[in-house]
Amino acid sequence: MQRAKKSLGQNFLTDRNIARKIVEALSIAPEDRVLEIGPGPGALTGYLQAAHPACLVLAEKDHYWAAERQKALHAGGVRGGVLLTDALTLAWERFTAPWKFIGNLPYNVASPLMWDCLSRAPGLTRAVFMIQKEVGERITAAPGGKAYGALSVWLRSFCAPKLEFIVPPQVFNPRPKVDSAVLSFVPLPEEQRPTALQAAALSAFLHRVFQQRRKQLGTIVKGMGPQALELLEQAGISSALRPEVLTPEQFLTVSQKFSCLLGQSGAAVPQR
Ligand code: SAM
Asked: What 8-state DSSP symbol labels residue 190?
């Protein structure tokens, strides 16, 4: 086996029971198409193959592991293939048919990956990801606390996240310094999810306000334009509040009020 590469967040799972539990959390049915992000040496892949989904696609950035997985997939007779790619560059909008996503995500790109794939893939029906416990806590945090931030609001505008279980460092090689967490995500019904336009405004607004999370909203939005305080009032939000107390629903409402201002300032570019 080649050495683990720190630059690719390679902490390989060595506990078969935990690998099986992670795959079980995806609830694979025979008709499912499954995408695994970062299969590496295949701790999860073996169980995914054994579940016999209709199609299994593996996205791996490391040449060596992509080639290894290609051989194993071929031998296992499951329909699908290996993409030698940076998963951050995947065109998530093209996942229009029903898909399930899974991965023991590389810690260094887990947040931007989840930001994109959970918000942009129209056909997503369920996802299960292992990530750093601290990131899992941020995603599931209630409004008002320190852990609650842009990632919490963004992901919960598109999905319902659930903490499945915690995984200790000793079941990885090499061992990470911190605990990991396995989370499942179920997309919200279509009519509750922001449209592409709404999402652009929400993303830009979140980026702006959480850069200054310790300030009051009135102070933060003042710099966005002369009518900003009035827009805040129209959205029914007190200017004395700090960003971290607003719910995802309130963020969606207020960001739509600000969409014209965000556009004018050139900030309506999706941000993480
Ligand atoms: N699934 C294996 C396991 O559970 O042991 C490996 C998990 S390891 C934490 C993360 C994997 O993601 C590695 O195989 C690494 O090469 C791959 N990886 C890292 N960055 C990636 C990226 N941007 N796109 C796709 N794969 C990536």
From this structure: G
